[in-house]
Amino acid sequence: AGSGQGGSAGAAAGSALRDALGMLVRALGQAARVCARRCPRAHTRVLAQGEAAHWLACALYVACRKSLVPTVGSGLMEGNGVSLTRILRSARLSLIQFFSKMKKWMDMSNLPQEFRERVERLERNFEVSTVIFKKFEPIFLDIFQNPYEETCKPPRSRKQRRVPCSVRDLFNFCWTLFVYTKGNFRMIGDDLVNSYHLLLCCLDLIFANALLCPNRRDLLNPSFKGLPADFHAPESPAAEGPPCIIATLCELHDGLLVEAKGIKEHYFKPYISKLFERKILKGECLLDLCNFTENNKALNKEYEEYVLTVGDFDERVFLGADAEEEIGTPRKFPADVPAGKAAARAHVECHLQQHFEKKRSFAPSTPLTGRRYLREKEAVITPVASATQSVSRLQTMVAGLKNAPSEQLMAIFESCARSPMESIVSRVKEIGETFCRSYTQPTDEQPGSHIDFAVNRLKLAEILYYKILETIMVQETRRLHGKDMTALLEQDVFHRSLMACCLEIVLFAYSSPRTFPWIIEVLDLRPFYFYKVIEVLIRSEDGLSRDMVKHLNSIEEQILESLAWTRESALWKALQASENKVPTCEEVC
Q1: Which has the least CB within 10 A, 72, 345, 398, 534?
Q2: Which tens digits make up the pLDDT trace of 163-192?
Q3: 69 DSSP β-pair partners
Q4: Whole-model pTM above 0.85?
Q5: What domains are there in the chain, each with its CATH number?
Q6: Contact call for residues 254 and 269 (beta carbons, < 8 A)
Q7: pLDDT tens digits, 492-518
Q8: 441 and 509 in contact (C-beta within 8 Å)?
């Protein structure tokens, strides 16, 4: 009887698999048949889990990413012409569910590390985009009219003159411009701070073009603080030159003015110029009746080609009516949500929040070892505000300082038996060169970043390094009553560890995807030595934010739990040097 039941269960499972595959083939075409040849050995494991269509979606994504399709230009296109978004829609699988199932699929299929890193990078990009979209909605509402209130207006008669574009068109066009531009700057895509400033640049451009429209009063929010002084005049002329509202947006919405202007001048404006050169965008006013339809069509076409060739998810799903189901991200503005949907939306928000809490990408937890160093708890803020405020706080800490020894620190150097000045400056320069080279070099894990970003972060770290080194030296001079500091200042590993720690603080402030232990790997520094300098740094710099302290404490725990106990760890040599005399709990505490 048991054998009979097993046979009928197997037949039912096989039927479920065929039905699921048939559904995907009908939705996606012949490309879906590829997965049938790539996952037969995994069938039993898949069917034991249930939800055959969801698992086949994972298999199809892997198969498509491994496919190379010839193109008209005699090149090769990765992706088999099927985007991840189409696969997930066909299988009725949300992005959050996909990432959860994909991890299990990769384990079951024993996929290579390179592919796992690709999925991790995709998930990080999804998280950044989700956070940015949540920020985009209220900023858009601040500048423009509510795009969803237009549905309540009576329909225009056929005789009425058609307007260049509606507020909803504006909303969709601005977001599409952002995701397309972000996709072409891979070094920005998974960087929260840079992505946010790129969004502000897109909003700035759309605002400037909206001012040129005949129906600008229908598009723009009359309460927006960045409107021209004569905007409310009865016969207000269209703006002659393109106004810039970057400063206003940074002031109102947690931006960093210098960084946002840098993104605009060095990346966004040249890129928009290229889009005009390639005839993707055209016209004095992008939103003009004669230009908008073609601009919108060309931009969406370009973005669709990008999605197919790169294989990332189509970030326009945030704009769709089914966004809540497809990725778990609330789409509409609060005023537009029917009462009956409140519970479902709360459920979606809960799932999204759980996903972010599990990933902990933007909010470090409080480690047990570091609670004594934490400042008073700060108010709950958004991830974008948290990131920009972290950078702003860091910039405040080093305001007015140079990335070189101060007069007081040079005096301490000169008071030593042998001045360490030359070796310290030389070492900082060498570390900086290594950092910039690694930061800008693409790897399997992540794309390389632009040298401007590397230099900017390095300069902040250098200033912080000299500032903290000076504080430590002043404290040690007082503690040792003016004793010669030559021995301490000639310790190479101390300086490398301190500089690495300062770089880690800067990377964390920018919500960089290059998370620890990336910095000690590129600087070839042992975790044990890095651990020894963390507490010294925290005690010496009281300007660190609560989140920065939590982050450094979490690194301490990471090293204590695993990294300090590897075969190559410097801890073993330290124990040998102390004749294997391990300190007691009392001595440590």
Answers
A1: 72
A2: 568 999 999 999 999 999 998 887 776 678
A3: 77
A4: no
A5: 2-111 (1.10.472), 118-151+164-229+238-349 (no CATH), 382-588 (1.10.472.10)
A6: no
A7: 999 999 999 999 999 999 888 888 999
A8: no
